[in-house]
Amino acid sequence: MRKILFLDIDGVLNTERQHDYCVERGIAPVDGFSYSFDPEAVANLTRIVEQTGADIVLSSSWKYWGLSAMQNMWANRGLPGKIIDITPDTVSDDMLLSVDLDMMLPAVKGSEIKEWLAISGSQVTRYAILDDQFDMLPEQQPNFVQTDPRVGITGEDANSVIAILTDMATVAGPMEQNINR
After folding, report:
1. Beta-carbon neighbour count of residue 72 at 10 Å?
2. CA 73, CA 32: separation in Å to the nearest integer?
3. Residue 141 φ/ψ, nearest 5 degrees
4. Contact (CB, 8 A) for 53 and 3
5. Cα–Cα dist 181/179, whole Å
6. Residue 91, pLDDT score
7. Would you say 28 and 4 are in contact if contact means Cβ atoms under 8 Å apart?
8. Which residues, at least 6 apart from 85, have a Cβ–Cβ distance to it below 8 Å?
9. Counting Cβ atoms within 10 Å, is residue 112 exposed (0-12), middle (13-18) or buried (19+)?
10. Are 46 and 157 in contact (CB under 8 A)?
11. How far apart are alpha carbons 21 and 15 in whole angstroms?
12. Sign of the Cα pseudo-torsion (122, 83, 152, 60, in order)
């Protein structure tokens, strides 16, 4: 039995508030990725991981750095939990080059999460999704918590995710119903 947190980074841990703080103080990124993550958002992620035991699957565009790079960054930054995987790419390079990026591709992340669950989710009993963008599939909505990109994961967001991961049956119904929709 496994609990999974599908985690975006920008607008969830990498917040506008923290970016502004770093810029105002002349703090430069030191690990080649970005500015440090928002300490309040990280504290709320820590609470989620500690209270649920969830493993992390990155659904963020940061996944393009690769799983190993993300795991190394996670360890170097002393972040909570364990990144076990990244979601697959359902959007081809050709599609990205030909699409109008001002137009949101509908439910891209939701489709990638659905594909990950279909391929790798046989042991997953509960999952939650944390993202600042609303591009999930309709059947994923009960498992989705949307963050405010200015501040990332709040205490209220953490409470919502913890409720999803610890009481999925009353929040979203049986796991198989959510995967097979």
Report:
1. 15
2. 9
3. -55, -40
4. yes
5. 6
6. 58
7. no
8. 57, 58, 67, 116, 120
9. buried
10. no
11. 10
12. negative
Sheet holding 2-7, edge to edge: 83-86, 55-58, 2-7, 124-131, 144-146
Q: What is the pTM of this model?
A: 0.84
CB atoms within 10 A of CB 61: 11
- CA 148 to chain CA mean position, Å: 13
Helix axes 155-166, 39-52, angle to 10 degrees: 20
The first and second tokens of residue 92, run together, are 């081809």
From start to end of 18-101, where are the E strands? 55-58, 83-86
pLDDT digits (tens, 9 = 90+) for 137-169: 999 999 999 999 999 999 999 999 999 999 744
